[in-house]
Records
---
Amino acid sequence: MTETTDAMLSQPGGANVLPGPPGESMLVEVRGEGELSTQDMTLNIGPQHPATHGVLRIVIDLDGERIARATPVIGYMHRGFEKLAEARDYRQIIALVNRHDWLSSFCNEMGVVLAVERMMELEVPERADWIRVLMCEWTRILNHLMFVGSFGLELGAITPVFFAFREREDIQHLMESATGGRLHFTYNRVGGLKEDLPRGFLAASEQMVRNVRMRAQEYRDLLQGNEIFIARTRDVGVLDPQTAVSYGVTGPPLHATGVGEDSRVTEPYSKYGSINVPVPVGTNGDSYDRFMILVDRIDASLDIIEQVLGSIPSGPVNVKLPKVVKAPEGAIYVRTENPLGQGGYYLVSDGRKNPWRLKMRTPSFNNIAMVPHLLEGALLSDMIAVLGSVFFVVGDVDR
């Protein structure tokens, strides 16, 4: 076959001949002038894909390079936390629930102990309440650092994840000195905390606030004005406030749309009603805003920690309880602001030492529910930029 220097050779009948293997040619149907026909294609993303933050599968139907439909397939990681809670007493549940969202463990524990304490009408010592807020905010920063680093990595920037894990190691070392754990702290107890803070913890926290605040600026310098990062995230995966609310989206994806709903403000628990809680919000609701909200929330958590450090009184950190903790008959629902959004804990007791039913409302489930809306009509090349900005943990979806 002779070499063809033209891009294509026009043929009668509305078809074009493209150069193919030796002795062959390929026919491509032309719909109209300058428009090539496309073939629908179905792709599986996952269930074990490095950019899906866990064992999640998304089936996408493509029309050319555009996503016509996206369907999340969940359940690959289901471990039955809610059902397991029925066979454990209230102390054991604390160690259980901090594992469905392993990046928000202390906040998960917080919701359960608050539900039990309200049913038992327990008054937690003031020192324990303040320390809980302190630990919640350090956990929030740990969570956001993970997503700030991994989102940059998914878009091709490897430096942010190195920086994020530098700060995470420092904070985890600090929290390990008090809780004994690095990921699953299990520091909460019904009626207070496992034990008091070690000597020097508050002073170390003050220094850590200064360090993290200074280093958080590096994330802005790396990505906020980066023209490649902006091109990949600006006006990509736009979510409007009405759609976000209709899907039950909470946390950073909701705040990025301009809606500042935060249960620490609208329904304060622990000592959040005694301090100023900043709630950063965005304007466009796109992938860029969702990322920047995480960085802004790190600064907001540092502001809260500074307020807490100046307010922690002396005194006990737990109350004396019977050997077997039993909640009275009844039901209660507790709402908390977890790092990824609002967590809800519906606890039903029949008066025994273990709950009759524990139902959790986890933020990642609703965040994943809006993925089909965000990906419909998007380019395949933008899928990871959208998916990485939704911020979810698959264990928090499957529970």
---
Amino acid sequence: MTTPERPEVPEPVGFVVGAGLLARRTLDAALSAGFPVRVVVLEGFGDPADYADQPHITCRLGAAGRMLGWLREQGVRRMVMVGRVSRPSFLALRPDAGAARLLPKIGVRAFGGDDTLLVAVARVLREEGFEPLGAEQFLGSLQVPPGLLAGPAPDATAQADIRRGVAVLASLGPADVGQGCIVQQGLVLAVEAIEGTDAMIARAGPLHREGPGGVLVKLLKPGQDRRFDLPTVGPDTITAAAAAGLRGIAIEARGGLLVDREESCRRAAAAGLFLLAIEPAALNFDAMTGEV
């Protein structure tokens, strides 16, 4: 995915940001490419202090009317939604007047799964005159080709666990449940749902069996809209995986994002944990013999 074309006098790009490093990394990439930005920090998720150097407001999740109104005032037409957000129930949104007008267009059924909801939101944003952009359009450098990124090469047991994880996620994908699972010696210890990756890893820790540790597999959902919620691994993921007794992480090549690659690889190597970028449709472990 290429970076959006920048006109001679670039219009600002709007960022609606939640928690995590990825939001600020994406914003900095847009700034480096010459795009001015306007930031909506989602209350309770993003930290306004992280965006004090840019024009920003703080908005609760249900205040879509205020959010979109401010972005229009700032001349924003293109918008990126990035960062971790715990999706509230439909009733907990407390929509403002603008959001109440938009919710019927999104539909209650869209709240059944993350990808379904994001696609519905993107459709409504287009109807409101905005162009939704994906974080990956600014973050091509965070995507990695297939291969071993750090740590020891996975042995036959780990390879089998990766294959099992790929099969599990392929079967769960149509249900729009999650992007990750943890497999140990063929046993599925945990599947990612609404709690997110870090909480899933913590939950799997006490379920650890004797013998070789488990493997975290993070993949795009089948048919997922690549503009939103790409599977992401970063230094904190590595630390959490090591603490839970995992022996490796497999993330989708050219689809997932590796944040702070140097630090992530350093932590993986220090913990003796492999970090592997895979192509789920064509797993060829024999070809993954060197760092990429």
---
Amino acid sequence: MPSPTTFRPFLGVTIGDPAGIGPEIVAKAVIQEDVRAACRVLIIGEAEVMRRAIRMCRLDLPVRSITSAAEVTADPGCLEVLDLKNIDTAVCPPGVLAPHCGRAAVEYLNKAIDLAIAHELDGVVTGPLNKEAMAQAGFKYDGQTELLAARTGTKDYAMLLVVGRMRVLHVSTHTSLRTVCDKVKQTRVLTVIRLAHQVLCDLGSRKKRIGVAGLNPHAGESGRFGREEIEEIVPAVEAAKAEGIRVSGPFSPDTLFHRLRLGEFDAVVAMYHDQGHVPLKLIGFHRGVNVTVGLPIIRTSVDHGTAFDIAGTGTANPHSLVEAILLATKFVHRRRKSTRGRGE
């Protein structure tokens, strides 16, 4: 355990959709010894939902309901919940999709964002939110990433997936395959390459080598299978090189991720959601972390959904959330070190 003088980041952890596995994995994750040693945690959600989750997971922990971040004591003997009191457990049974649960989950996220913007939290770690429930509640966002960007007024942002030392950023995410080609434009590809470089700096990467995936099979094969590489991706790569960024590509997607795993690159820029998600989830399904880069606040998340099919059984695996919390603490420490280095 750290000494009393050791800085431990103060993180807000949202429970996500109260009908999903979020409350269960939060209960399991925040009591892990490595999590307790690394940071202080404020759970943001509904106290009664957390009490139910604790019973489902057969844990023996009291829940302390608090009304502000300032009340946190970091007592390892209980779970401290910033209780928004916005949902009744009687109307949110586990595993049932409902708009009021989607609304509650968004309110937890918004509260966490507000606290982070006000510097009452060092970072935010989010539990899984169900996109359909959120949409039914009237929130027209494709996911938490887009909501975070809108809430913080962020224009240039990207989704980053992390599994160990493998890092993949995405040019496009929650969009149909028919519209992906319309989103692979030079300006957007260059923006994501820049964000990849910045996140490697934030993580303390020494070489900062970035590989860029092609959009088409064999990276277009000199225009035989599509011209997006020639007209959009190559110009973005060349522009990034001119800025001093260590980037190369586009490479055939069917070999690039193998090269990433072997350590030839420190990050990869993928063109669309499944191009980046499939290889990383295959390699480390329970270890993946979702990071929103480009925001003025630190935000990490689990890399899975609400899993309504197992919600309420107490069997959900908390490893992704544990990894998300530990990665958030790493970002906080790196940001503090960078700020001190600039004399701020």
